[in-house]
Amino acid sequence: LHLLSRRQRQMCIRDSYNGLPVVEIAQGGIPSGVGTDVLYIPGTIKVIDNGMIAGASATHVYLGEGVEKILMHAFVQASAKDFHLPASVKLIEPFAFRWTRNLSDFIIAQGSPFSFDKERQMLFSENGERLIFANHNGKTEIVIDDGIKYVGIGVFDWASSVEKVIIKAKGLIAEPSSFSSMQNLKEIVFEDGGWIKAVSYTHLTLPTT
Fold first, then answer.
1. What is the pLDDT of residues 58-104, one digit of tens each?
2. Total-model pTM
3. Are the C-beta atoms of 168 and 149 separated by less than 8 Å?
């Protein structure tokens, strides 16, 4: 790791070392106890793997052009407020940003297959049809709007503050654990003709009456 500026608290992972490209970060490569304002990961690292940046205490995370995949639990429990995604990122796996409770913005390069709705705090792929991440921290109500076709694995995992889910999407497909462990869920309401096409009910606890 190379600390660019102690005053600005910026940390940059080098793209080369002794003339060789840096292509991988060891699991837990950014220790959770290391605090920094900005973390930059170079594009020579194509895949950010499970636990590589787990618990990283960076406020702003920049991924360099060339990063292609963000795998499961890559940034689990990271404290970042925003992520800068280059167009080269084509895959974000389920739980990649699990328990990132401060995460409120994705700054996404033009040409990326992903989009972020800041008002709804939702990250999408496939022209807004596939919901792959949502910041539900502190929310008591979630709305799945029409146009959303798919809710990914664990999107609302441990949404403990949510009491009500409103489904306006028509023909929604929800993956196993999409709505798991919502301890305070009281009601699921279908509005504007919304309906679920497929869901694994073994992972969805419906409220009792």
1. 889 999 999 999 999 888 888 889 999 999 999 999 999 988 889 99
2. 0.82
3. no
